[in-house]
Amino acid sequence: MSRASNIAILVLLATLGIGLTWLAQYSSAPRIAADQRLIDTRNLLDLLAADSYDNQPLEQPLPLENTKLENSTLLTGYRASKAGKACAVLLRSKTLGYAGAIELLIAIDANGRLIGVKTLKQSETPGLGARIADWPNTWLQDLSDKSRTELADAGWALKKDQGQFDQIAGATITSRAVINATHDALRYFDGHRQALLGSPSHE
């Protein structure tokens, strides 16, 4: 067999291999995307009781990209509804902790009461501030079920700052950042309640 024939065969095999690889990736892309959506859904919606909403909140993000607040930035938001009526808002918030950015998911019900807070990303000190990433998280659960109507703005602070909340042991800056970001989210909700909740659906 001539050298030219060998080269042609190699080129053909390489082309065939590339084609098969592309076909495999192309055919599996929808499944991979669906799996990722499922992971995202579980990660972002587990603050809400499964029977508390009947829409797909992640498919209808609120236009909040990079909304700067006093101590944090809102990255995006989602509205959960049931029977066409808004029941909760999820706000994805970014704040600065001790070692870097902390991303939180803050769930607020239609009455302005905090449903819960979850840490999505963090780079805090292992064994100290990094404990905010534990799930479920006892310290974060202590923030739940609070609102601005029952707790004055001054109360949204650590006890060492004359507020109402304990801190994570050895993680004052982390604790303060999370409380401030949560307070920011509640204040934003109160100031933009109608836009965040929208109008009841009549469909």
Describe, in plain words, how this protein is organized in 3D:
There is one protein chain. This protein is α+β, with helices and mostly antiparallel strands and 203 residues long. The protein folds into 2 domains: 1-45; 50-197, no CATH class. The chain has helices spanning 3-45, 138-141, 172-191, 193-197, and strands spanning 61-62, 67-68, 73-82, 85-96, 101-109, 114-121. Strands 1, 2, 3, 4, 5 and 6 form a 6-stranded antiparallel sheet that branches. The longest helix has 43 residues, at 3-45. It is elongated, with a radius of gyration of 23 Å. The N and C termini lie far apart (72 Å). The mean pLDDT is 88.
Tell me the overall shape. elongated
Largest sheet: 6 strands, antiparallel
The quaternary organization reads as single chain
Number of domains: 2
Order of helices and strands: HEEEEEEHHH
The proportion of strand residues reads 15-25%
Summarize the topology.
Layout: H1 3-45, E1 61-62, E2 67-68, E3 73-82, E4 85-96, E5 101-109, E6 114-121, H2 138-141, H3 172-191, H4 193-197
Antiparallel strand pairs: 1-3, 2-3, 3-4, 4-5, 5-6
Output the keywords:
203 residues, alpha+beta, 6-stranded antiparallel sheet, 6 strands, elongated
In short:
The protein has four helices and six strands. The chain has 203 residues and is of the alpha+beta class. The chain starts with a helix and ends in a 6-residue tail after the last helix.
